[in-house]
């Protein structure tokens, strides 16, 4: 099983808030092909990058990453997740449901600080990633 890296982890990496051990782990799993991110995460990062310098940093960080697409199957599963969670009284955003569906359908763990946003998939907290193997 590999990892899908969520937006918050990459923001922390870009801003120097990710621990050095976690940053080293992240670089290692990306180099090994065990980690990817979603086009949704890419969108969120670029949207939040308010300056040209910030946009360049996002592009540089992700240039070697596998970028997982959203297709009909992912969109359909995301709709199911969102509908099922709404029936349980939980409101999830479309972006997080698309990320969760991508991870679920590809058998990936989501590395995120926002565990509550991903109740349907296995998650790993960033502070724990340096302690797990590839």
Question: Which key terms come to mind for this protein?
Answer:
alpha/beta; single chain; 7 helices; about 15% strand; five-stranded parallel sheet; about 130 residues
Could you explain how this protein is built, in words?
There is one protein chain. This protein is α/β, with parallel strands linked by helices and 134 residues long. It has seven helices and five strands, in the order βααβααβααββα. The protein has helices spanning 7-14, 20-32, 39-48, 52-62, 72-87, 94-105, 126-129, and strands spanning 2-5, 35-38, 66-68, 108-111, 123-124. A five-stranded parallel β-sheet has the order 3-2-1-4-5. The radius of gyration is 14 Å and the shape is globular. The N and C termini lie close together (9 Å). 31% of the residues are buried. The mean pLDDT is 95.
């Amino acid at each position: 099983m590999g990892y899908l890296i969520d937006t918050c982890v990459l923001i922390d990496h870009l801003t120097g808030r990710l621990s050095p051990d976690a940053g080293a782990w992240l670089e290692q799993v990306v180099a090994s092909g065990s980690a990817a991110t979603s086009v949704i995460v890419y969108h969120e990062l670029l949207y939040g990058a308010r300056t040209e310098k910030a946009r360049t940093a996002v592009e540089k960080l992700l240039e070697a990453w596998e970028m997982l697409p959203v297709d009909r199957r992912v969109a359909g599963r995301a709709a199911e997740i969102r509908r099922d969670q709404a029936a349980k009284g939980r409101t999830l955003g479309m972006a997080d449901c698309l990320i969760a569906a991508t991870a679920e359908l590809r058998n990936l763990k989501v590395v995120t600080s926002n565990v509550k946003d991903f109740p349907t998939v296995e998650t790993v907290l960033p502070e724990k990633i340096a302690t797990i193997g590839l």
